Amino acid sequence: MLRRCLGVTASIAGAIALTGCHTLESSFDVHGPAANQISHLETFMTVMFIVISAIMWLLFAYAFYRRRGDLTEHAPIDAGGGEMWIAVGGLAIPLVVLSILFVWGLDLLRAFPIHGMHGDSNHHTMAHSMKPDILIVGHQWWWEIHYLDDDHSKEVTTANELHLPVGQPVNIRLETRDVMHSFWVPQLHGKVDLIPGQPNYVRLEASEPGEYQGQCAEYCGAEHARMRILAIAQPPDEYEAWLNAQRRPGAEPATDAAKAGRQIFLAGPCSMCHTVRGTPAGGSVAPDLTHIGSRQMIAANYYKNNDAWLEAWITHAQSLKPEAEMPDLTHFTGEQLADLVAYLRQLQ
Ligand code: CUA
């Protein structure tokens, strides 16, 4: 029996490994100042929960073993001073604990301004300090990411992979194109909702280089679970190099396969929804693919970005992510498909 359980566990683990599935890291494993602040409250809540639960269970066990019998054998509660239990355990302790949590929570909220700029007339200092560096737009079911710049020609659009310079706070404006979503990278910050018509702000800072898994944290439809984001914190010079590389237009295909692939991409349905800068493909309803080859994952950070998953995604997106906007494109020949993937993979 045990062996069978282990076998099942191993196959589940294997299946998870095969899909390239990444689990969210714990919000106790903090890698940034905001997450660090939140984790203190979290630790306090967890410890209080454990202590109070333990006391409750001990009292319960005590009451259970102290005396057996039915109601008629027991004194009514007002005969033995039992009101104290209600006054202290039911009112005083919850009042103290909940008041501490309430004040602490309000204080934390104040530390994380989520409303940055309500129109240009707002000259509050926070408005200035929350000038966004990055705009993230939520879609069913992926993240559109714009790296903003006063010089618009330097702006870059990408998707599902958020790069950050280590040790520098980055102001992010959060919008949604459709329903409510919630931006959550547990190791860096708490959740901040993306609300239609109401931009919110979050200031992200990673204290050390690394990759931090994120996940949409507000139910937003069929593929809510496959709406992930990967935050990659890099040393500032590496980040700048990455950003400069992203500013370049899509790579010119060098091989015959990639050249043929570009033809297919531009002539087929791909270019109606996707953009590859430097080509006529300028669709804006789907992720920008100018540097798709540089990203680790596809389908909102869900499947590995390799030949096999790309081919599967192009032909059977509706099986891999039912109800996503990406249709099944089953009309390509095997060679056309390979060319198309060759083109996408060299868009580094
Ligand atoms: Cu987007 Cu849940």
Regarding CATH, which class of the largest domain? Mainly Beta
Average pLDDT: 87
CATH superfamily of the largest domain: Cupredoxins -  blue copper proteins
Which cofactors or ions or other ligands sit in this model? dinuclear copper ion
- Per the principal axes of the C-alpha atoms, what is the gross shape? elongated
Report the end-to-end length measured between terminal Cα atoms. 49 Å
Biggest β-sheet, characterized? 5 strands, mixed
Helix and strand succession?
HHHHEEEEEEEEEEHHHEEHH
The main sheet orders its strands as 3-2-1-5-8
- The number of domains is 3
Structural class: alpha+beta
| CATH second-level architecture of the largest domain | Sandwich
Low-confidence stretches: 1-20, 117-128
What is the CA-based Rg, rounded?
A: 26 Å
Give the beta-strand count.
12
| Range of strand content | 15-25%
Write a brief caption for the model.
The chain has about 350 residues and is an alpha+beta fold. About 40% of the residues lie in helices and about 15% in strands.
